[in-house]
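Trying the structure run again after the queue cleared.
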Amino acid sequence: MISSNEPAVTISKKARIAIDTLQPADRNRVVRAIGLLSEPAGELVSRGHAKKLALPGKFFVMRATHEVRVIFNIADGQVEVVDIVPAERLHRIFQSTG
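Done. Tokens:
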């Protein structure tokens, strides 16, 4: 049972498409990682499951597999999975902006 204190989780169309393209084992791990998003972000960060991205707003990244990351946003108590990306692509993006 989900309590009213837990944030609602939605998945963007872009993220759904990315999930659908994954191999079954990776897809299952991503789905399990997304399930963790019903916990408060502060707890995920303090336990090392998620990190705040250096972007305006409340964007976070969470490792789903060795090679796949889940990017999510928190706004007004709503958690949205924004995208599912390869870890290397995420690393390249933030390396080039630093």
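The domain at 8-97 is CATH 3.30.2310.20 (YaeB-like fold). Worth checking whether this holds up in the mutant runs.
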